[in-house]
Design brief:
Blueprint (H helix, E strand, L loop, with lengths): L1 H28 L24 H18 L6 H27 L7 H20 L15 E3 L3 E6 L2 H22 L5 H22 L16 H22 L8 H18 L6 H4 L1 H19 L11 H7 L4 H29 L2
Antiparallel strand pairs: 1-2
Helix pairs in contact: 1-2, 1-7, 2-3, 2-7, 2-8, 3-4, 3-8, 4-5, 5-8, 5-10, 6-7, 6-8, 6-12
Length: 356
């Protein structure tokens, strides 16, 4: 518990102070955000706002994790190192995307194929290592499982290794793009991430308290390194909280694809490593909603040859086009996130109680 509190506090402090430094430096270097021309006109005033703030979130979380481990004199686990690889690796893909936008002075960074190749490479390497028997602990647990999971592994739903890898790829690329789509209003993605990663901190603490010491049973959790995952979840929560101070409306800095892709992949990583793959659809419901709105809009547009369901997608822009103030949209979407998180945690706890 000490390491969890240390990680969250250190990450919060680094992010709070580091983001202020990044704003000054990025402004001086001209690392400003380009704005899509077909977006709400109110966004045009944001052109030139410093971007790539996700660099601070990633550094704050990583430094805080290793600082907490050093202070408590404990060794990093395989699950934690894998999650950090996924978090940082996807952040690098996002950084390249952001840097190209800045260098080329356009709203388009990496081409869609190049971006997907980068995301796929990181996701597949993560999946192979997470399922690898080389990383089994003394009880034979690998970081990830070939069983599909909701609140824990579903014993009868075992996938062949290739399908398990495909599922991991789908979650990692899906949620990294989902958070990227959500990051369209000041503070929206950062505030939602605070709540969702905070929820995973609680999930991991509970899993550690009810950890299967030996053989798996119906009232314990067969997860490899729940305590170490809780430390990372706390660090990311603190990093997002500190960043939100500067990212809330009116935003002084944006996280960019660097932050959104990293946070989305970390969310998928937690779902995979904690055996809560389907639960994350509830906990991260706001990200799912944003993604579905884009999918519905594109599909309906193609089927009807030009007609739209929403005035603009993702759905947060639809409400802006209806005349809602940006702050109103963000706060109400935060409320939706809070309801999703409360529902997910309620289901998680109720399932455990029902097994006693």
């Amino acid at each position: 518990m000490r390491a969890i509190l240390l990680a969250g506090g250190i990450a919060l402090l680094i992010s709070l102070l580091g983001t202020r430094t990044a704003i000054t430096a990025f402004t001086k270097w001209g690392y400003g955000q380009e704005i899509r021309e077909d977006g709400p006109t109110s966004h045009h005033t944001k052109r030139g706002t410093p971007t790539m703030g996700g660099v601070v979130i990633i550094l704050a979380a990583v430094i805080a994790y290793f600082a907490a481990k050093l202070i408590t004199l404990s060794t990093p686990s395989a699950s934690a190192l894998l999650l950090l690889f996924l978090f940082v690796g996807m952040g690098v893909v996002g950084f390249l995307d952001d840097f190209i936008k800045i260098y080329k002075q356009r709203n388009l960074g990496l081409r869609s194929k190049a971006k997907m190749i980068g995301q796929t490479l990181i996701a597949v390497v993560f999946g192979i290592l997470a399922l690898s028997p080389w990383l089994e602990d003394e009880n034979g647990r690998t970081p990830a499982s070939e069983k599909v999971s909701f609140l824990r592994e579903i014993d009868w739903l075992v996938l062949p290794t290739i399908l398990a890898l495909l599922l991991i790829w789908l979650f990692v690329t899906g949620f990294s793009n989902a958070v990227n789509l959500t990051d369209g209003l000041d503070g929206l993605a950062a505030g939602a991430s605070v709540m969702v990663f905070g929820a995973y901190t609680l999930v991991n603490i509970w899993q550690n308290n009810q950890f299967c010491q030996g053989e798996p049973s119906s009232i314990c959790y067969n997860v490899r390194d729940p305590l170490d995952l809780a430390i990372i979840a706390s660090a990311i929560t603190g990093a997002c909280f500190g960043f939100l101070w500067w990212n809330a409306a009116p935003a002084a800095i944006f996280m960019g694809d660097t932050g959104s892709l990293a946070l989305g992949s970390a969310l998928a990583g937690f779902a995979i490593l904690t055996r809560t793959e389907l639960l994350v659809i509830i906990l991260g419901g706001i990200f799912v909603l944003e993604t579905l709105s884009v999918m519905l809009q594109v599909s309906f547009f193609k089927i009807t040859k030009g007609k739209r369901i929403f005035r603009m997608a993702p759905i947060h822009h639809h409400f802006e086009m209806l005349g809602w103030e940006q702050v109103t949209v963000v706060i109400r979407f935060w409320i939706i996130t809070g309801l999703c998180v409360a529902t997910g945690l309620g289901i998680f706890y109720a399932e455990w109680v029902s097994r006693l």
